[in-house]
Amino acid sequence: MVLAVILTALPLERKVVSGYLNDLKRETDNIGTIYFRGSFSASDESWEVVIVQTGQGNQPSAIHTDRAIERFDPKAVLFVGIAGGIKDVAIGDVVAATKVYGYESGKAESTFQLRPDLDWSTPDMVQIASAESTESGWLQRLTSNIPTPSPSVFVKPIAVGEKVLASIESSDWEFLRKNYNDAVAVEMEGRGFLEASRYHRRVSALIIRGISDLSDDNKNSQDENARQQKAARHASAFAFEVLAKIAENESNSLEKQQSKRLGRDKSFNDKLTGLEIDILAKYVENHRVASNESARKILCRRIGIESLKNIHDFINEKNDYDFAFNLIDYLNQVDKKDTICELFKIFVTDKIVSNISDEVKSITDKLSQNP
Predict the structure, then answer these.
(1) Residues in Cβ contact with 39 at an 8 Å cutoff, skipping those fewer than 6 apart
(2) How far apart are CA 354 and CA 161, in angstroms?
(3) What DSSP letter does each residue of 87-130 carry, written as one string?
(4) How many C-beta neighbours within 10 Å does residue 81 have?
(5) Which H or E run contains 288?
(6) What does the buried/exposed string (b/e) look like for 99-120 if buried means 16 or more CB atoms within 10 Å of the residue's CB?
(7) Nearest CA-CA partner of 350 in 294, 295, 304, 268
(8) 320 versus 20: which is more confidently predicted?
(9) In angstroms, rounded to a whole number, what is the distance separating the alpha carbons of residues 84 and 166?
(10) Strand, helix or coil at 158?
(11) Burial letters 253-287, b for 16+ CB under 10 A, else e
(12) What integer pLDDT is reported at residue 39 of this predicted model?
């Protein structure tokens, strides 16, 4: 099961996101942060999803994002919630951010000198969001009736600041329209979220916002709570469609790789499957513990296999993935299950991760339980 973390700023947003999960459970870390964990299924694919409410602002957003990634080692992180619309959008439309502008960054002289602070959603997530933005499948995930006209999805930049822009009379509205004229929405957490996720290169990150307010007060016809509920529902529906497509793509990719491996080498046995070896190899690759010949030699020495007759064949593989896949496959075939388990204990021993991912743990537990 693949794991994702979804962050929200407001209780309303967290409650809407939670409605998509089954078997929702609550857990607390050692400093009192509360996480909600549940499962989400789409077709034959499943996600384990952890939700954390950050509160408003970029600083708490960055702190909670970093802590959640360290704690859960997710494949994907999403910030899901509501935002104000600057231009082109309507109440209930969805914006998946290609990038964020920290619009308050600059230098105060006789006039304010712009020094934009930029961060980007990861390209893989933007690609999925772009593909789904023109499809109607996400609308089927709405927990309410599909509105008429149907909401639109924009894959565009957004602006991020540290204050709520409550009135179009504010000078900030004109400042945004003048200086960030490709931004279609404004919010308060996205810069901190992307800044924190950027330091965890293996994690895919995306901001998804539903529009709850518009810069033209005359277009805010519904009461505030109704607008926010609608925006949160639409953002959440699109977010879970993105997760469904990631899982679908991941499954297709794994099947292709497994098929390719099986076609090249028919020697897989019933200890670990080709798919399980593929998962373990990707974990090694993603954490870059075998990125060069020296690192591979050290790794082999630490798990006690430096004297294997064909160890140099593995060390000289062209990339991290092939090194890990062929080494684990060989250890699997010669019944060195304990050695495979030792390899993954290093991740925790060296504090590369705080906990091995549930997916990898389930595979190594299988080896430990079948000596």
Answers:
(1) 1, 21, 22, 23, 46, 47, 48, 49
(2) 32
(3) SS--TT-EEEEEEEEETT-EEESSSEEE--EEEE--HHHHHHHH
(4) 33
(5) none
(6) bbbbbbeeeeeeeeeeeeeebe
(7) 295
(8) 20
(9) 9
(10) strand
(11) eeeebbeebeeeeeebeebbebbbbbbbbbbbbbb
(12) 96
> Backbone phi, then psi, for 49, in 5-degree steps?
-120, 130
At 86, list the tokens: 């600057």
Residue 353: per-residue pLDDT: 84
Q: Could you tell me the two tokens for 281?
A: 């190899």
Q: Is the pLDDT of residue 331 over 90?
A: no
High-pLDDT (> 90) share of the chain, %: 47
Amino acid at 272: L
Query: How distant, in Å, are the alpha carbons of 64, 236, 255 from that of 82?
Result: 18, 10, 37
Q: Is the CB of residue 88 less than 8 Å from the CB of residue 215?
A: no
SS3 state at 289:
coil
Phi, psi of 95, deg, nearest 5: -125, 120
| pLDDT above 50 (res 264) | no
* Cα–Cα distance measured from residue 278 to residue 285, given in angstroms and rounded to the nearest whole number: 10
Beta bridge partners of 85: 185, 214
For residue 290, give both structure tokens. Answer: 């075998």
**Beta strands, E only, the chain:** 2-8, 22-28, 34-42, 45-53, 76-85, 94-102, 106-108, 112-114, 117-120, 153-160, 185-187, 204-214
Q: CA triplet 149, 7, 344: central angle to 5 degrees?
A: 130
347: Cα separation from own chain's centroid: 21
Is residue 306's pLDDT more than 90? no
Mean pLDDT rounded to a whole number for the chain: 85
Q: Which of 50-59, 155-164, 299-308 has the lowest mean pLDDT?
A: 299-308
CA distances for 276 relative to 92, 280, 367, angstroms? 42, 6, 11
What's the CA gap between 149 and 147, in Å, rounded? 6
pTM of the full structure:
0.68
